[in-house]
Write a structure and sequence with these properties.
Jelly Rolls; alpha+beta; 4-stranded antiparallel beta sheet
């Protein structure tokens, strides 16, 4: 077997369970599939930034909510029940387009869990930092307005 070092064992995951060594969002990992496949169940408010996979194809299945998917120069809307194929070598990104969280099954063939999570985690951190900075700027602006309105009259 060229992808993984050992043949994978069959397994069944019940609700709330994840692949061995992972949380419940990871249903299939390189380690559980012999490197052939990754499947992550994501309940998210944000997506993944622009990136290119050099050796993996990526697939998305929208369980609930909606996504905006950019592939190369094209932009698509993927609503509940939509399937998206993102071939290796093509720059792409996606984001949640619905007002609430989207539930997305994210798959790669062959498996690439570590690199995906590295990109995804950096993107989430940046979004949180930007949200925090916007909140701080808004709070600062509100304090300044409040201070101006409370200045004593001369």
């Amino acid at each position: 077997m060229s992808i993984g070092s050992k043949a994978p064992n069959p397994y069944v995951l019940h609700p709330g369970e994840g692949a061995a060594g992972f949380d419940a969002s990871v249903k299939a990992a390189k380690s559980s599939t012999g490197g052939s496949f990754t499947l992550i169940e994501s309940h998210t408010r944000c997506g993944a930034p622009w990136h290119v996979h050099s050796r993996e194809d990526e697939y998305l299945y929208v369980v609930s909510g909606a996504l905006t998917v950019s592939v190369g120069k094209e932009v698509f809307r993927a609503e509940q029940g939509s399937f998206v194929f993102l071939p290796r070598g093509v720059a792409h990104m996606w984001d949640v387009a619905s007002p609430d969280k989207a539930t997305v099954l994210m798959m790669t063939v062959p498996g690439c869990l570590k690199s995906f999570f590295a990109i995804f985690t950096r993107h989430l951190e940046r979004k949180r930092e930007m949200k925090s900075l916007r909140r701080m700027a808004f709070d600062f602006s509100a304090v300044r307005r409040s201070m101006k309105s409370q200045k004593p009259n001369k």
